[in-house]
User: What shape does this take?
Amino acid sequence: MSAVPNITGRKATFRLDQYPAVEELAHALGTELRLHIMQLVGERPLSVAELAEKLGVPVSTCSLNVQVLESAKLLRCERLPGQRGTAKICSRRLDQVTFDLRLPSEMKKEVQALEIPVGCYSSVGEITATCGMTDHVSLNKYFDNPACFLHPYHFTAGLIWMHSGYVEYTIPPFENLPELRELEITFEACAEAPSYCNDWPSDIYVEVNGCELGVWRCPGDYGGRRGLLNPDWWSDLDTQYGELKSWRVLQGCTKLNGEYLSSVRLEDLHLDSPAGVSIRLGVHADAKCVGGMNLFGASFGDHPQGIVVRSYYEPIGDKASVD
Assistant: This one.
């Protein structure tokens, strides 16, 4: 994290992790005399001699305290010709100082988000039954036929399921890669069993640009209670809801819901490819647990969303410097 404050115009924001700058600022404002100096130069620029006279202190004392404020970037001082040689003229450099008391890990990064409807995939492959898709209105007539994934109907799908295979989504390449700190892919999913079975493990994977982030072993195909968003006509005997999983690729590793998953890093993903960024979700036919996948959209399951891709960039304040 940056060790300098974010200075915009005549305002500055300091964070707790900027130890030298915060310590120097606190020291500079830690006496009544220096606070009075800041008040006086706010009215108009004053020389050190004028400040000493107004404050009723020796010029040498005033000069030392002005140096402390200047070092902390609170004053701007210039030497200009005066009646008796040169005079050190002081003006206030900052009008407002704020402190962000959050830890660096709590700081809100600049975020860009893109939500992809689950049916808006760009390609599919190796789909095996049981498989199918449906929207929130009616069951797809291509139930248990892999060919249904090629039908234009798929753009309106709200729930997709398969025994094995994958769906792949393509989004534009990322910009400002030097400032990119995290890539997060979030979706609701579970395994796929005939009807449903809460104890039906499946190894669900995510790939980005052909690089596999890792595998989540989903415990089951969840049912037994209705999904919060499911339409009324959806049978109680079918899959009802999934788990919301967050795959976060950092500069040093990949995490799944906050826990270490793999050593895949942002730089491994080639996110600036002019061909775009491909995101593949699925189950390998040769996985240890081939239990299928249900992928929930905004109108099924428990969470009103499709596949959400978020990119986290370094806060603007971390790129600022002090002149």
In short: Residues 316-323 have pLDDT under 50 and may be disordered. The longest helix spans residues 59-71.
